[in-house]
Design a protein that fits this description.
Layout: H1 5-9, H2 14-27, E1 33-34, H3 46-56, H4 71-85, E2 95-98, H5 101-112, E3 118-123, H6 128-135, E4 139-144, H7 160-164, E5 166-172, H8 184-197, E6 200-204, H9 226-229, E7 230-235, E8 248-252, H10 254-265, H11 273-284, H12 288-310, E9 323-327, H13 334-345, E10 347-348, E11 350-351, E12 362-366, H14 371-384
Parallel strand pairs: 1-10, 3-4, 3-5, 5-6, 6-7
Antiparallel strand pairs: 2-8, 7-8, 9-12, 11-12
The structure holds pyridoxal-5'-phosphate.
Length: about 400
């Protein structure tokens, strides 16, 4: 049996490798503290679960859903956008439901990339930007995210010839894995750049609500003209602790939404209507859970930042996401550092190289365990005596 070449070009899915290492350590009886995976540890809020329970019992939810999402779900998204960002969206043309934002992110490349076209992707970055490009026989062109630039890409460094052959640019703020945020000024530069080269900007906004110390993230679509050239991918996964439910949405340019819908109508058949009803409850019901989750993440962030700074790191408190992006010790390779940490302390972190070559020299810590376990993690690192940053 001969598989397609594209299978061979795809690196092993990052989290599968971590899972394997974790299983081996557990087998040996190690008390693992897993800071490797960005999956909220708290349950979905009760009102959302209740709405799903009711909705499942209604036979009207049992048939094929509309490909683009139910009208009610799209209206709820538009309302949420209006309330949160002051942005007007036409729910019929500028909003589309997704089976989780990963699904839309992976598929948008098929709608825009022809063989040989370039996509501009951040590095380090969410791995799907690269694999999505490769699946469409496109050429990923890396935009390095460097600490000295606040982990923002330097658009002036993008090769003119490449820019002319580019169809899609991905950006992601608040950012996974670095925790960096972007302001409107940066988004304005992106819009200008995209207009100049006729590029679709895809802003991955999965962590829009996970912000701290009074900081609120701006939508890319708040910038004048952004909606002409861009779409924003959104997710209920992190905002409402709904990773397993698989519900997200894309909003913005109606041409892009329409192109994406052509791909999707030929690949999937939409998100379960009962889950969309629960999604409406999430978006239009009480929002206090977001604030209480952010309080929890702030407490956890403080434990890790203070703990690591005590060991000699020099980390500033992150404004967003539940990730802490830390340099390894003495320029150690990220995989070696992650392995050493697992071996000496039983702590799992994600090696930065999994997010691209510019992730080398860093590891990502996810704040997805409770304060006690994070304190224990910091204690173990201190006790090991070798983690003096
Ligand atoms: C940056 C980023 N974008 C998108 C996603 C996908 O989220 P979902 O498919 O659950 O909406 C994730 C998940 O971890 C992510 O970190």
């Amino acid at each position: 049996m001969k598989t397609a070449q594209r299978i061979e070009t795809i690196p092993p899915y990052l989290f599968a490798e971590i899972d394997k290492k974790k299983a081996e350590a557990i087998k040996k009886g190690v008390d693992i503290i897993n800071l490797g995976i960005g999956d909220p540890d708290k349950p979905t809020p009760d009102n959302i679960i209740k709405k799903l329970n009711e909705s499942v019992l209604d036979p009207k939810t049992h048939d094929y859903p509309p490909y683009e999402g139910t009208a009610e779900f799209r209206q709820a998204v538009a309302l949420w956008y209006k309330n949160r960002f002051g942005i007007d969206l036409n729910p019929d043309e500028e909003v589309m439901a997704l089976i989780g934002s990963k699904e839309g992110i992976a598929h948008i490349f098929l709608a825009f990339i022809d063989p040989g076209d370039f996509s501009l992707i951040p590095d380090p970055g969410y791995p799907v930007y690269k694999t999505g490009t490769l699946f469409a026989n496109g050429l990923p062109y890396i935009m390095p995210l460097l600490e000295e630039n606040g982990f923002l890409p330097n658009l002036e460094e993008i090769d003119e010839e490449i820019a002319q052959k580019t169809k899609i640019m991905f950006i992601n703020y608040p950012n996974n894995p670095t925790g960096a945020v972007a302001d409107k000024n940066f988004f304005e530069k992106v819009v200008k750049f995209a207009k100049k080269y006729d590029i679709l900007v895809c802003h991955d906004f999965a962590y829009s609500e996970m912000t701290y110390d009074g900081y609120k993230a701006n939508s890319f679509l708040e910038v004048d003209g952004a909606k002409d050239i861009g779409i924003e991918f959104h997710s209920l996964s992190k905002t409402y602790n709904m990773t397993g439910w698989r519900l997200g949405f894309a909003v913005g340019s109606k041409e892009a939404i329409s192109a994406l819908s052509i791909i999707k109508t030929n690949i999937d058949s939409g998100a379960f209507k009962a889950i969309q009803r629960a999604g409406i409850e999430a978006l239009t019901g009480p929002q206090d859970n977001i604030e209480s989750m952010n309080k929890i993440y702030t407490g956890r962030r403080n434990i890790v930042i203070n703990g690591l700074n005590k060991l000699g790191w020099n980390l500033k408190p992150t404004k967003a996401t539940f990730y802490i992006w830390i340099p390894t010790l003495s320029n150690m390779k990220s995989v070696d550092f992650a392995n050493l940490l697992l071996e000496k302390t039983g702590i799992i972190v994600t090696p930065g190289i999994g997010y691209g070559e510019y992730g080398e020299g860093y590891v990502r810590i996810a704040l997805t365990v409770d304060e006690k376990r994070l304190e224990e993690a910091m204690k173990r690192m201190e006790k090991a005596g070798i983690f003096q940053g």
